[in-house]
């Protein structure tokens, strides 16, 4: 399939596919006419990249998942390197949640202080 069809079926743009290719996440074959050609395996890679990016993974973090699929595994997370990326991402998310909870607690405390200082009879 050509790049336009891959983009359509993969739910992305040709520009994004070219970018994935520049990062080494996709590898296009060239037809006799010089145009990029892709197959169903490439579509699986695009779906994997887009799925992970959709939940906040950086494109570089998708590399082990893509490699795992290229090695013939049925899923991109069947390899130890992919599982390690999951662990690292989960740790990052946990840290972010902890920081956000601390900020929320601080804002709540400041709101409570402000509400105590507010004159209920003021217009």
Automatic annotation (TrEMBL):
The keyword Transit peptide does not apply. The keyword Ribonucleoprotein does not apply. One of its GO terms (molecular function) is DNA-binding transcription factor activity. Keywords: DNA-binding, Transcription, Transcription regulation. It comes from the Bacteria. Transmembrane segments: none annotated. Residues 1-68 form the HTH merR-type domain. InterPro entries: DNA-bd_dom_put_sf, MerR-type_HTH_dom, MerR_fam. PANTHER family: HEAVY METAL-DEPENDENT TRANSCRIPTIONAL REGULATOR HI_0293-RELATED (PTHR30204:SF94), REDOX-CYCLING DRUG-SENSING TRANSCRIPTIONAL ACTIVATOR SOXR (PTHR30204). This is MerR family transcriptional regulator. It comes from Saccharothrix carnea.
């Amino acid at each position: 399939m050509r790049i336009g069809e891959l983009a359509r079926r993969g739910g992305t743009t040709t520009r994004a596919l070219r970018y994935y290719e520049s990062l080494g996440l996709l590898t296009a074959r060239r037809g006799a006419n010089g145009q990029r050609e892709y197959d169903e395996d490439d579509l699986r890679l695009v779906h994997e990249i887009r799925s992970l990016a959709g939940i906040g993974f950086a494109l570089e973090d998708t590399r082990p998942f893509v490699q795992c699929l290229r090695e013939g595994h049925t899923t991109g997370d069947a390899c130890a390197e992919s599982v390690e990326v999951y662990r690292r991402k989960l740790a990052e998310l946990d840290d972010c949640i902890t920081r956000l909870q601390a900020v929320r607690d601080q804002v709540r405390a400041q709101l409570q202080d402000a509400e105590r200082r507010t004159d209920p009879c003021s217009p």
